[in-house]
Q: What sequence folds into this?
C-alpha cells in the first residue's frame, strides 16, 4: 500500500529506526526560471563551484546569472534533459555535454574561460531524441568518462561514446532499443562494467570496443515501469551487486536483490509518491554507507503520468542491514508541498567548501540549493578555547 498524507506531511516509512539526527538544510532559490536539470563545476576557474541549469550558468558565491546558450522551449519543456561536466578538449576548463529530446541530439558546449558570452556548440550525435545521458566507466580504467545515452526511439541502437583525441567515437553495444532506463556497473563480479536496461543487462566483453555484449534478459518478470538510472551496488553486504532505481513515470523506488546465479528479487523502498526520475547516491550522514537523494519531478509528462498532480517533494533515504540480511529504510523530508522537485538530475556535492554535502536540484519550478548546515552548526556549537 502507498503511504498516507497526514496534515500535508508524508508519513515516514514503517519499521525503520532513526539512525542519525536529522541533517539541517537551508533551502535557497537560485533562480525561478524553468529548467529540467543542472550540473556543477568551477566554470570560471576561481576555485568555487558554480551551477549550470537551462540557458545559464550561475557564478558562486552569489549565483550571478550568465547566459551562455539558447535552448529550444517546447510543450513546457526546456530542451536540455541532461547536462554533464567534462573537459572535452583538454584545455583544463570544464565543458558541458547536453542531451536534448526535441532537438534530437547530443552535443557539447565549449567553455571559453570568460564569464560573458556564448559558448560554442559541437555536435556529437543527431537523429534521435535523447531521454537522458550519463558519464560512466565502460573501459574499466576507473574513470567515468564514457558517455552513455538513453535514446527515446525504438529505432535507436544502444550505443556508448568514447572520448578519443578530443572527439567522441561511437560504439554500438546492441542494435536494439530496450526502453526507458539505463545504467552501468559490474553485475556479475568479473571486474568489468556491464550495461543495464529495463529488460536486463548486457555483459561486458573483455574488449568493450570490439567484443560482443551478451544479453541477459532477467528483469522483465520484475516489471520495471520506466526506471531512470539503474545504479549498481552491494546494498545488503552479501558480496553480490544489487540494483537501485526509481520509476520516472510511475509510483515507486525499488532495489533489486541479486541472489545466486543472478536471480533477482524486487523490494519496494517507497511507493507513496511518483516520478522519481533522478536518484543520486551519496553518503550524506557520513556512516560509510551510500544513501540516496531523490525528488518528485514536476509534470514529467504534462499531467499524463500517475500521480503527476500530487505535491512535489525532495527526500533523502538511509538504510541499515537487519541480522537476517534484509534492509530497513528511513526517509528524510528535505522539502514538501512547494515548487521544488527532483528534475532530471540531482547534484550532491560540497558546493560551499565547508566539508559537508549540499544538494542542487532543478525543475520546471526553478533551480534550488539545499545548503547542508551540519559543519556550520558544529563550528558554532564548539566551545571557545
A:
Amino acid at each position: 500500500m502507498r503511504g498516507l498524507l497526514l496534515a500535508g506531511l508524508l508519513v515516514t516509512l514503517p519499521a525503520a529506526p532513526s539512525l542519525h539526527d536529522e541533517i539541517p538544510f537551508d533551502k535557497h532559490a537560485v533562480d525561478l526560471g524553468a529548467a529540467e536539470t543542472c550540473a556543477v563545476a568551477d566554470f570560471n576557474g576561481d576555485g568555487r563551484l558554480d551551477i549550470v541549469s537551462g540557458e545559464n550558468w550561475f557564478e558562486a558565491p552569489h549565483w550571478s546569472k550568465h547566459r551562455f546558450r539558447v535552448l529550444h522551449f517546447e510543450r513546457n519543456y526546456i530542451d536540455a534533459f541532461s547536462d554533464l561536466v567534462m573537459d572535452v578538449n583538454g584545455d583544463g576548463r570544464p565543458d558541458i555535454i547536453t542531451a536534448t529530446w526535441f532537438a534530437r541530439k547530443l552535443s557539447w558546449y565549449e567553455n571559453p574561460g570568460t564569464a560573458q558570452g556564448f559558448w560554442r556548440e559541437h555536435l556529437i550525435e543527431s537523429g534521435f531524441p535523447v531521454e537522458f545521458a550519463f558519464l560512466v566507466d565502460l573501459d574499466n580504467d576507473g574513470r567515468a568518462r564514457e558517455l552513455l545515452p538513453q535514446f527515446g526511439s525504438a529505432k535507436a541502437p544502444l550505443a556508448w561514446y568514447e572520448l578519443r583525441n578530443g572527439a567522441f567515437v561511437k560504439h554500438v553495444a546492441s542494435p536494439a532499443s530496450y526502453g526507458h532506463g539505463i545504467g552501468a556497473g559490474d553485475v556479475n563480479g568479473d571486474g568489468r562494467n556491464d550495461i543495464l536496461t529495463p529488460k536486463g543487462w548486457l555483459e561486458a566483453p573483455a574488449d568493450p570496443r570490439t567484443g560482443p555484449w551478451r544479453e541477459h534478459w532477467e528483469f522483465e518478470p520484475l516489471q520495471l515501469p520506466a526506471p531512470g538510472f539503474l545504479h549498481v551496488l552491494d546494498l545488503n553486504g552479501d558480496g553480490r551487486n544489487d540494483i537501485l532505481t526509481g520509476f520516472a513515470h510511475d509510483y515507486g523506488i525499488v532495489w533489486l536483490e541479486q541472489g545466486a546465479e543472478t536471480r533477482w528479487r524486487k523490494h519496494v523502498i517507497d511507493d507513496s509518491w511518483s516520478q522519481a526520475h533522478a536518484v543520486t547516491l551519496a553518503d550524506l550522514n557520513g556512516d560509510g554507507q551510500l544513501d540516496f537523494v531523490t525528488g518528485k519531478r514536476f509534470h514529467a509528462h504534462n499531467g499524463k503520468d500517475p500521480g503527476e498532480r500530487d505535491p512535489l517533494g525532495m527526500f533523502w533515504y538511509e538504510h541499515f542491514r537487519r541480522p537476517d540480511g534484509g534492509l530497513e529504510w528511513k526517509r528524510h523530508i528535505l522539502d514538501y508541498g512547494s515548487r521544488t522537485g527532483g528534475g532530471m538530475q540531482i547534484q550532491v556535492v560540497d558546493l560551499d567548501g565547508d566539508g559537508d554535502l549540499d544538494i542542487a536540484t532543478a525543475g520546471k519550478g526553478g533551480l534550488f540549493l539545499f545548503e547542508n548546515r551540519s559543519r556550520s552548526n558544529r563550528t558554532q556549537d564548539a566551545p571557545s578555547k
